[in-house]
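To close the section, here is one more complete example, presented without commentary so you can practise reading it yourself. The ligand is magnesium ion.
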Amino acid sequence: MTDISCRNLCKTFHQGDATIRALDDVSLDIEEGSFVCLSGPSGSGKTTLLNALGGLDTPDSGEITVGGQRLDLLSKSELAQLRLNRIGFVFQAYNLVPVLSARENVEFIMQVQGVRARERRSLAAAVLAEVGLEDMEERRPAQLSGGQQQRVAVARAIASKPALVLADEPTANLDSRSAAQLMDLFVTLNTERGVTFVISTHDPRVMGYAGRLISMRDGRIVADERQQPHAMAV
Amino acid sequence: MAFPVAAISTLAWRNLWRNHRRTLIMLLAITVGVWAMIFMASLMRGMTDQMVRNGLQTLPGEVQIHQRDYLRDPSVVNSMDAPGGALLARLQEAPVAAWAGRVRVPAVIASERGNRGVTLLGIDPVAEAALGSLPDELVAGRALDGPGDRGLVIGANLARRLETAVGKRVVIMSQDTQNNVAERGARVVGIYRARLQGSEDRYVYAGRAAVQDLLGIGERISEIAVTGHDYRNVAPWVPRIAAAAGTGLEVLPWTELDTFLGSMLVVQDGFALVFMVVVFLALSFGLVNTLVMAVFERVREIGLMQALGMRPGMILGQIMLESLYLLLLGLALGNLLALVTVKPLESGIDISSVAQGMEMVGMGTTLYPVLHTADMLMSTTVVIVLGLLASLAPAWRASRLDPVAALNKT
Ligand SMILES: Nc1ncnc2c1ncn2[C@@H]1O[C@H](COP(=O)(O)OP(=O)(O)O)[C@@H](O)[C@H]1O
Ligand SMILES: [Mg+2]
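Output:
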């Protein structure tokens, strides 16, 4: 059960004299196994919403339930534990620990999860092959292209076996070929393993992949449509 | 779920070497700091060691046995029998390394040119030599040849004051057990030089039997001086000697005989510790700064770790471990450096150019640094304990970073 439900989320930021409503009474339900895109112009509150869903940020008011657990009732450590075992984050860039190789980055989470060394090794090799990086296992992030780095981040997310992946503009720094590769990977994970995806983007081609497209503006949901997903043309 | 030590230690180690220059500079600082701690301590140990040794030589002995009232009134009345029976047996077995019975009374020595109050020591030269309590250097004449020797060995300074010399006669006067003046003429057979000028003025050596004759006390003596193998470690065997000596005698270790000397060791331990802490406090600014910088440069990464599900404790642990690695490396190098620099100096450093006046505190002109394992352990403990305490603040702050703010940092 990894349904997500949000009720009346509000979050305001104060910048000088201005008050910014990053989330303005957002209510939302996402079923397990969905592939959801959050779209909207820059500053519309997508990142704030994703961070709140992953327990990185706490809304000023409202309630979030992920997989039956009320996030506001969890301690920092329990939230960390929830992210470790159930939620994968993919950010726009700098997703990797610079001092660890691609393989070590993938193994790291498993190590923290307590997976045995042998299992870790073989799983890391398998997922890196799955994202097409079998020859780059020992490279450090600095020796990988942006697209390759993003794929390592996805490999890491696969290896940690999350039920939910929150991706914040994951293709923003990628050329369209790399972006398409990444989105294909997401779709595969979603259909083959039933991982729920919530992806923020303002790239219309990425939105095409989603089965559900939620549009935000000024911290509010302005549209919420189901659609027939289609891959992007490269 | 267990703490992922392996994962965190890899990270800590690699992060430590991310900024080579900064880490190496800090490592150098810790190394030099640790070296300074141990080097300074070894000099201090050497100094006190020498002070205590010199003190023990003049006491003499690490442990002394007297008649109960002797220390209050060190006159011939409070003498004791030469050791026998159980006490003698104890004195002849380990851990006793040497012992000597001596007569020690206040006396006046007079030449035709003057007289001085002195302490007359009636000794058995062979036993005293084993004890190491004889003056170091004979500058004229000969040493006493046995307990029956009727000559006197006096200090060079005293000889100068009395305007006497080897071969000349002097008169020695003291009190016998009936409080009558006992006096006898004697020939100066030797003149010695002592490390401490005060001793040269004060101690007059004579054969034990000759002094016993003079005082009319038969075989009785004033004190028994005993040494073991380690003056720091007399406490365990003093009670055993005391038990054998019986209630009429008082058995005291040097720490009680000369409380100033006795307090030296404790004071010195305190000094060494204070010095180490002070050195480390200076270092800790650099250490904290290094860690604060290291955390500051990695804020985004720490946000990432939090997003990936690392608990605050793991982030704290990672920074602490990073600091611990740095401290351990510095300790290893610092200890090594101390080892290779102090060991060759243990044969002595000549400080005569700066040593004028040192002898009043019981020092000679050569300093013998001593490398104690205890000092190495003490510096290691100080560095690790204080180092980790100092690291706690930056590590704590890193673990409490707000993940969203951290992730937004560019
Ligand atoms: N830490 C912050 N301090 C101040 N304002 C913030 C902060 N984070 C976000 N905001 C503001 O909140 C609004 C929503 O931001 P965000 O969720 O990042 O939007 P998006 O991801 O859709 O671009 C923006 O106006 C942004 O400036
Ligand atoms: Mg954003």
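Once you have examined the tokens, check your reading against these statements. Chain A touches chain B at residues 51, 54, 56-57, 76-77, 80-85, 87, 89, 91, 94-95, 97-100, 104, 108-109, 111-114 (CB under 8 Å). Helices of chain A lie at 46-53, 76-86, 102-113, 117-130, 146-159, 176-193, 204-207.
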